[in-house]
TrEMBL record:
The keyword Transcription applies. Residues 69-253 form the IclR-ED domain. Residues 7-68 form the HTH iclR-type domain. PROSITE patterns: HTH_ICLR, ICLR_ED. It comes from the Bacteria. The keyword Transcription applies. This is IclR family transcriptional regulator.
Length: 253
């Protein structure tokens, strides 16, 4: 990373957390200051801030241990891998019911990041490999997650009335049109992409929620446009059911 954008205070905080993790309830402020070469006044400010954020806890004997916020963040980190594992198990069944590929993704600002997919053999391979990103407004997956983004955050993500990029002649090009579609998504619980991301393909997606109801990911099924009318209802029902099963798993883990 270019050091031009480096934040020294974050680097120091990282060193403090590492030291505490290696010796929980064993180091006081003065010990951390000497070990890391950080003067006492700076160390006091770092520890006070991290304590207020629940990153660390100051014990009765003035030593420090890791705080509950780090446990929450760590649990969320590992849950995303648990979700992928559960997705593979559950979607491997659904894909055979639909005879179509099933995809899992999460929202990163105004883009969809593909995490995993269960693929059916096909002469045409979908470009949605894990790690690939697509503009959220052009995908059913993106709409299934954008529908529950808070209004201020949504306004930041889409500050202009014009939506870019335009991937096909069917891609939404106005924020106002996107907002209307997201209202339908919230009402119905699922989203469509009708040749908006890739010509010749249609898609249905549904959100996956965590235990507190927050949308953490979405799943979708894509198929050729000429198969869409015959399989749309089945795909919608199966994807919604799969999303519900994955959400229940998130609640119990």
């Amino acid at each position: 990373m270019d050091k031009k954008y480096w934040v020294p205070a974050l680097e120091k905080s990282d060193l403090v957390l590492q030291a505490i993790s290696e010796q929980p309830s064993g180091l006081k402020l003065i010990d951390l200051s000497k070990r890391l070469g950080i003067n006492k006044s700076s160390m006091f400010s770092l520890l006070a801030t991290m304590e207020a954020l629940d990153w660390v806890v100051r014990e009765d004997d003035a030593t420090y241990s890791l705080g509950s916020k780090l446990g929450y963040i760590g649990n969320a980190f590992f849950k995303q891998f648990s979700l992928i594992d559960r997705f593979r198990k559950e979607a491997s069944v659904t894909k055979h019911v639909l005879k179509e590929t099933i995809q899992l993704a999460k929202l990163e600002r105004n883009e969809v990041l593909y995490l995993a997919k269960e693929e059916m053999p096909s002469p045409v391979r979908l470009s949605s490999e894990p790690g690939i990103k697509f503009p959220a407004h052009a995908t059913a997956l993106g709409k299934a997650m954008l529908a529950w983004v808070d209004e201020p955050d949504f306004g930041t993500l889409y500050a202009s009335e014009t939506l870019d990029p335009c991937l096909t002649p069917h891609t939404l090009q106005k924020r106002s049109d996107l907002i209307r579609q997201l209202e339908d998504v919230r009402t119905n619980g699922y989203a469509y992409d009708l040749q908006e991301a890739v010509m010749g393909f249609c898609c249905v997606a549904a959100p996956v929620r965590s235990g507190n109801g927050k949308v953490v990911a979405a799943i979708s099924c894509s198929m050729f446009q000429h198969e869409w009318e015959a399989k749309r209802d089945l795909a919608r029902n199966e994807i919604c059911a799969l999303a519900e099963r994955l959400s229940q798993y998130q609640t119990t883990t």
